[in-house]
Amino acid sequence: MKGFSGQGGSVLRRKAKDAVLYMFMAASAVFVLLLLVFIIGYIAAQSAGFFNLSFIFGGEGGGLLPMIVTTLYITLLSLGIALPIGVITAIYLNEYAKDSGVIRIIRLAIETLAGIPSILYGLFGLLAFCRFFKMGQSIAAGAATLSIMILPIIIRTTEEALKTIPNELRQASLALGATRFQTIAHITAPGALPGILTSAILAIGRVVGESAPVLLTVGITRNLPRSIFDSGRTLTIHLYYLTKEAIHPDDFGKAFATAGVLVIIVVLVNGAAKIIARPLKKRLSAE
């Protein structure tokens, strides 16, 4: 009887610990959600009266349309450069490469790139792309700089997603006569697509939120860019100048309205990425 009572007490203690941990995790998730709601609500409240079509498309002092276009150019171009390179690199490191000195050096280089301050990327982009390659301060130079900066995020996140695919699926595909490339294209890549999408979303957030590299390589011109070789000003840089040069009380309201537009763009781009990824995953799985 003592043994049974001791065992029952141990089970009760384990259940109590599980309940406490569950409550802690649930409270943490709710806290994160409330924090997000508070930030968005505070931005919306502070930008009330300024967030309108005239503020975005024109009016006194010009609108945000040039900054919105520049931000979209920078985001899509840098992601278009970095995402294919990062995904292919991650596939090579996880599916083909063996543990060797060269591979360890490559991984060390990726980790080093992830830890470099963004201002150093800006200096590199200014010297390499703006001056050496004679791009000048332009959207193309800024996108090339930011694509290097987000490569470690895409590589590491994609590689972790590839590691979650069971080796049994790879071995079964190879046993049926498929080549390694066919296995990657039809088994591994579709399974890792959610992780690849996560890497793209993280990269978008990093690109949109950067200021130092953009300031040095893209510039502060408020004109509407006609091509990727024109200079421009992103919403982040515009927000920085609004708060730096704030003289009147309305200036902070305009800054919060700009922040609201920035949040909306991030949500829309992330949503578009998820919508595009759904049919792509279905098609890859069907093939």
Characterise the protein shown here.
By secondary structure, the chain is mostly helical. The protein has two domains: 1-46; 63-286, MetI-like (MetI-like fold, Orthogonal Bundle), CATH 1.10.3720. The chain contains eleven helices and no strands. It has helices spanning 2-46, 53-57, 65-96, 101-115, 118-132, 139-163, 167-175, 180-209, 212-217, 235-244, 249-286. The radius of gyration is 24 Å and the shape is globular. The chain starts with a helix and ends with a helix.
Tags for this model:
287 residues, MetI-like fold, 11 helices, globular
* Overall spatial form: globular
The count of strands amounts to 0
Uncertain runs are none
Measured as a percent range, the helix fraction is: over 70%
What is the distance, rounded to the nearest whole angstrom, between the alpha carbons of the first and last residues?
61 Å
- The radius of gyration computed from the alpha-carbon positions, rounded to a whole number of angstroms, is 24 Å
CATH architecture of the largest domain: Orthogonal Bundle
Mean of residue pLDDT?
A: 87
Which fold name is given in CATH as the topology of the largest domain? MetI-like fold
CATH classification, class level of the largest domain: Mainly Alpha
What is the percentage of strand-forming residues? under 5%
Topology order in helix (H) and strand (E) letters: HHHHHHHHHHH
Q: Count the helices. How many?
A: 11
Provide the fold topology.
Blueprint: H1 2-46, H2 53-57, H3 65-96, H4 101-115, H5 118-132, H6 139-163, H7 167-175, H8 180-209, H9 212-217, H10 235-244, H11 249-286
Helix pairs in contact: 1-11, 3-6, 3-8, 4-6, 5-6, 6-8, 7-8, 8-11, 10-11
